[in-house]
C-alpha cells in the first residue's frame, strides 16, 4: 500500500493517543475530520492499522516481574506448535522465533518471582521443550509503541 506523509503522520498521532478524535487529528494534519476518517478506514482495510487498544502498565496491575526465556526445542518443533503452546500461558506477553542457538524467545510477566517460577515450570513442561535459559529483567530502559520508520521526504 502506498502511504504518503499525511498517512504516516496520522498513524504516528494514533500511536501516541488512539483516543484522539478525527477532528483533533485533522487539525494537526490540515484535513477535515471526514477526510481523516476515510484515510484511517483505508489504512485499516489495508491491514496497516490492526486495531486500537489500551496499553496497560504491568506494575499498576501487580505484574512487576518479567523475564526473557530462550526455548530449546526438539528437532521437529514448528513455529505453529510454539505459538499454540505459548498462547496457553497467560504470563506470556510475546513469543518469537529467533536465530542463534535457541529456537524461540519468550517474554514472560508475573506478579513476583514465585509466580514467574511457576510460569516457567509450566512452560518447561510443554512436551517439545528440551531446555530453557532465562534472563530476569532488572529494569525496563526503553519501551516504545510501534512506530513508523522516519520519512525520507
Automatic annotation (TrEMBL):
Alphabetical UniProt keywords: DNA-binding, Transcription, Transcription regulation
Stretches assigned to the HTH asnC-type domain: 3-64
InterPro entries noted in UniProt: AsnC-type_HTH_dom, Dimeric_a/b-barrel, Tscrpt_reg_AsnC-like, Tscrpt_reg_AsnC/Lrp_C, WH-like_DNA-bd_sf, WH_DNA-bd_sf
Protein name: AsnC family transcriptional regulator
Protein's organism: Actinoplanes couchii
SMART domains, per database record: HTH_ASNC (SM00344)
Taxonomy, superkingdom: Bacteria
